[in-house]
Amino acid sequence: MSLVKRSLSLAGHRTSLALEAEFWDVLDQAALDERVSLAALIGRIDEARVGAGDELNLASACRVWALKRVQSGT
């Protein structure tokens, strides 16, 4: 599996995130379902990660979030 890199703005800063296409698919669908931009969704994941003192990097946090979403069936 190869990584797909995307650029987005989080908290007013440009950043890039590299994830496998399957994880992007889950995140894209979640953003559509929740009627928010992909950047807004990833921003929420990032805020939750930082707020919880989670030491995962953002890419790992997005993978875990996407996995939990799939596992929960939402």
From TrEMBL:
Pfam families per the UniProt record, alphabetical: RHH_4
Ribbon-helix-helix domain segment(s): 4-69
Protein name: Ribbon-helix-helix domain-containing protein
Naturally occurring in which organism (per UniProt): Hyphobacterium vulgare
Source taxonomy: Bacteria, Pseudomonadati, Pseudomonadota, Alphaproteobacteria, Maricaulales
